[in-house]
Amino acid sequence: MLIRKLSECPEFVAGDATLLRELLHPDKQPLALRYSLAHAIVPPGASSKPHSLKTSEVYYVLSGTAEMHINDDVQMIVPGDAVYIPPDAKQFVRNLSTEPFVFLCIVDPAWQPEDETVD
């Protein structure tokens, strides 16, 4: 059994400027997974950088409110929302609130640096 505790996963600034902690990644743990799972935070008043992935991605919102930008579409997202981001879509989130925007990211197949383009 593998249990990853968020508090034990190192936090770093991702290429898109989110504060990220990788929970599960098949390249980093001996797991039979296709996807990767990360915990992300966008501080109050901040935005992630516009970026795109060659793979699909899902955001699941844990707390906070933000504008989700996918290509030319913009919608507000709140806790309990799951957002599908298709491959090659330009995306970013803008936290307009006074609290951190916290979400999970699932990338399938698992995130790889060469699959991401940051504007």
UniProtKB/TrEMBL annotation:
Lineage top rank: taxon: Bacteria
Cupin type-2 domain location: 40-107
Matches recorded under Gene3D superfamilies: Jelly Rolls (2.60.120.10)
Designated name of the protein: Cupin domain-containing protein
Organism per entry: Leptolyngbya sp. NK1-12
